[in-house]
Design brief:
The protein contains 12 helices and 2 strands, in the order E-H-H-H-H-H-H-H-E-H-H-H-H-H. The chain has helices spanning 5-23, 30-43, 47-54, 62-71, 88-103, 109-116, 123-152, 173-181, 196-209, 216-234, 240-248, 257-267, and strands at residues 3-4, 160-161.
């Protein structure tokens, strides 16, 4: 699917309007405004791509996180520790899934207030506390990442681009699939490269992907990503942004930063 800058900017205006409405909600309007924002994020052509990434970050299972925190309660109102994961992608994913749970009735904001906040039984105080503990940090972090997306967009309002520019998290299996299939890439496994150095560096990544230090799940994900990388490189006109985004989605990408940069530079000097 192709997008244009004008289309993204229109979606961003609606997102900003709905998120601003939610931040100013009181007890009477909170559920309606949360539902409106999440319904938009799930149905809009642009934001549905971001939604799918935010709810599928590896290691960020909302139900498991909530059960763990509820089990740690000291028995008092507000006695559950409101601690998010320290990994940036997992952190924003848990906060976003918490908002989705509010919007879809899976977890009532009043119960959240009783479990995690020390604001008493005042309903408007619960909404205000929820805004400070969840919504404000979530929407602020989302804004940072949206600004990154805006910086990657073509300058022309009618210039089209693929889904690869809409990356908002790196540790998302769904986005890897979007990158691999969303732009109609061929799935040949043969690397179109006459540069032996590129093949050698990809082989080194393959060795890292099979390291026993990685979990079985991470090894499997790494193999899938590298397969998609090779498929993209085999295309008639491989796209740098797709290859780069896929390589950065590798579970061991931090340890392979220099190697990844060398591959990109060798292919696109």
């Amino acid at each position: 699917m192709e997008f244009t800058r004008s289309q993204v900017e229109k979606s961003l205006r609606r997102y900003h309007d709905y998120s601003s409405d939610l931040l100013t909600a009181d007890w009477d309007t909170f559920n309606d405004r949360a539902q409106r924002l999440i319904q938009f994020c799930k149905s809009d052509a642009v934001f549905s791509r971001l939604h799918s990434q935010l709810v599928s970050v590896q290691g960020a299972n909302f139900k498991e996180w909530l059960a763990e925190k509820l089990a740690q309660s000291n028995g008092w109102v507000g006695g559950c520790p409101l601690e998010y994961p320290q990994d940036d992608d997992q952190r924003i994913s848990i906060m976003y899934q918490l908002l989705v749970a509010f919007a879809e009735g899976e977890y009532d904001v009043r119960d959240f207030g009783i479990n995690f906040l020390t604001v008493g039984g005042n309903f408007d105080a619960i909404v205000e506390g929820t805004s400070k503990a969840v919504l404000q940090p979530l929407l602020r972090e989302l804004e940072y990442r949206i600004e990154d997306i805006e910086g990657r967009l073509p300058k022309g309002g009618s210039d089209s681009f693929g889904v690869s520019l809409l990356q908002i998290v790196h540790n998302s299996g769904s986005f890897v699939q979007q990158l691999a299939h969303g732009d109609g890439n061929t799935q040949s496994a043969t690397v179109r490269s006459t540069n032996p150095a590129v093949n050698e560096m990809l082989e080194k990544l393959g060795n890292m992907a099979n390291s026993p230090e990685l979990s079985r799940e991470d090894r499997q994900k790494s193999d899938e990503i590298l397969s998609h990388v090779k498929s993209e490189l085999a295309a008639q006109s491989p796209k740098r942004i797709v290859v780069e985004a896929l390589l950065k989605a590798l579970p061991f990408a931090t340890a392979a930063t220099t190697l990844i940069a060398s591959i990109i530079k060798a292919i696109w000097p």
